[in-house]
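Tumor necrosis factor, pasting as requested.
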Amino acid sequence: MSSEQLVHDVEKGNIVVIREPSPKNNHWKCLSICSFLLLIGAVTVFALLQLDAFGLSEKQVSNTSWVKSEGLLFRKVPMGASLRSGKPAAHAVASSRHSSQLKWTADVFPSILENGMRLDENENSLVVPSTGLYFVYSQLLFHKDNCKKPLLLTHNITCWSSDFSLEVELLKSIKSVCEEASSNKKLWFESIYQGAVFQLNKGDRLMSKTNLPEYLDFTHSTQIYFGVIAM
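Structure tokens follow.
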């Protein structure tokens, strides 16, 4: 409720009533103005963030173009983007077009080749662009509908040294399956993963191989992969 004051007008001999504005109304007006200003600021910041996000997305899309074929995403144009860290990196997956042998490809999503890393399709190897420490990893996925005889699966990661012209074995895993072969066991899966850090030189070639490529599960080719990351 507003307060009132009685003021005597000497010249006219009248009494004037002066009504003062309510402090409560002034308080709500201040809150309303502050809330409005905060809302304007929040909308402005959100709009700027959205514009920046859209700009980044457009750059990413322009750097990489994919096309869908046979249920897979294939790279349409070579990637020109680089990782923010500036370090070499590669992630290749098995090519489903070669069901009788293990062939690596960087043309199928989610494969990458960044900052100098190269896949030599003729040698089926990843080529190291610079000397340094690298984390090398690989996974193979095996599968068969029957289990008629015992099998010994091997997974090797080797390096062809550019300095010594010699192939060196970096990692090796061995797993046995179908040890108790019988007609009752008709379906089996087996995955072998391995990885470690190595000192590699510029020009070194890395290879991931197996002794029984005919048992690889190429229906899930993206789960058969081979990668290198600079430390």
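Note for the archive: The chain has one helix and 15 strands.
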